[in-house]
Prior knowledge:
This protein has helices at about 1-15, 20-30, 35-50, 55-85, 95-115, 120-125, 125-130, 135-160, 170-200. The chain is mainly α. It has one domain. The relative contact order is 0.15.
Amino acid sequence: MLEHIAGLITTVIAHLGYAGVALLMAIESACIPLPSEIIMPFSGFLVSTGTLSLWLVALAGAAGSVVGSLVAYWVGLWGGRPLVERYGKYLLITHHDLDLADRWFTRHGDITILIGRMLPVVRTFIAFPAGVARMPLWRFNLYTFIGSYIWCWGLAWIGLKLGQHWNTLGGWFHRFDAVITIILLAGVIWYVRRHLRLLRR
């Protein structure tokens, strides 16, 4: 499946150029796990051939990330909290948890978004909780753009240096994704056990 996705990504970028980079990164940032670890290194490879420019590739990727993140942010803002308050108990989410999320984004929201945009897996889904926590839109857009630009530029630069071997980066990040997924899964297990214990009390 990863090979088919990679084929789709390379075809879109080869035909649409910067617009294709922006489109694909927007899809990835709208909570659809399209791997930026393939999108940006291939764009970097095209930079090595003289087809594209490195800073414009990073700019297109960051702009697309902001647009896609806005979709998830608005879903979280307008539908997220009421839906979570109504149905969250079935997922062991309490009002206390929502209040904690609000306070966290109030105190650390900027750095959470900035760092989250530079982490595999996390970057795809970080916009929704920011919307639920009603993080100010201008700060959300600013830190999403900065974090995404750094991420996109870094991956494109690596693709530029790897040249025709750009696709080896995807496999390396895929292993890194697995590590992050395991950590997140462990966190979910801890969360469920803690809330079940609280419910029993």
